[in-house]
Design brief:
Shape: rod-shaped
Order of helices and strands: EHHHHEHEEEEEEEE
CATH architecture of the largest domain: Sandwich
Strand order of the largest sheet: 4-10-9-6-7
Structural class: alpha/beta
Distance between the termini: 28 Å
CATH superfamily of the largest domain: Cupredoxins -  blue copper proteins
Number of helices: 5
Number of domains: 2
Bound molecules: copper (II) ion
Radius of gyration: 28 Å
Strand content: 25-35%
CATH topology of the largest domain: Immunoglobulin-like
Length: about 170
């Protein structure tokens, strides 16, 4: 986005804000045609109608003097994912794998583990050699308890439950 162009978001497009913007930035003000400055003045004095004033604003937008920044919905979008610790997860012979066993997410996703089993579990992050590392580590989670962690770096991350170390899961962050 060019600095010489005014950046105004739609809700801010009220007369007073425009006046502040005009006076606050000489470079911007110089790109605004004189007739529009006159319009702003006349509008402020009540000499022209709102429609005429808005038409002047429309000219500024159509000619790229005012750049409307459409706010991306993605950055403000909250990314969420969850991993269920299912019933039977504690039993070696059970198929109670983490759901999903390998969670795939985008960078910035908040992951919530939910203990849906009848016994406590925890989540302990592991390094590549399978050793517990101090990164995402939950306390003991009773039935129904949750543990949250936001993944800000791409990679593949393994974890396990220290009570039931045969239960290893992974999170792939892209
Ligand atoms: Cu466990």
């Amino acid at each position: 986005m060019e600095h010489t162009k005014m950046k105004i978001i739609i809700p801010a497009m009220v007369f007073s804000v425009l006046l502040v913007s005009f006076s606050g930035n000489i470079a911007n003000a110089e790109s605004i045609p004189q007739w529009i400055k006159n319009n702003a003045l006349w509008y402020g004095q009540g000499d022209i109608s709102e429609t005429e004033f808005l038409n002047a604003m429309k000219f500024l937008i159509q000619n790229g003097i005012i750049v409307i920044e459409t706010e991306d919905t993605e950055p403000s979008e909250i990314l969420n994912a969850s991993v269920m610790i299912p019933n039977g997860n504690s039993e070696v012979a059970s198929a109670g794998f983490y759901l999903p066993l390998n969670l795939e997410i985008s960078v910035g996703t908040l992951v919530t583990w939910v203990n849906d089993d009848s016994v406590p579990h925890n989540i302990q992050s592991l390094d590549e050699s399978g050793n517990v590392i101090d990164w995402f580590n939950s306390p003991s989670l009773n039935t129904g308890d949750r543990f949250e962690f936001t993944f800000d770096e791409p990679g593949v991350y393994n974890y396990y439950c220290s009570f039931h170390p045969w239960r290893v899961g992974s999170v792939t962050v892209k």
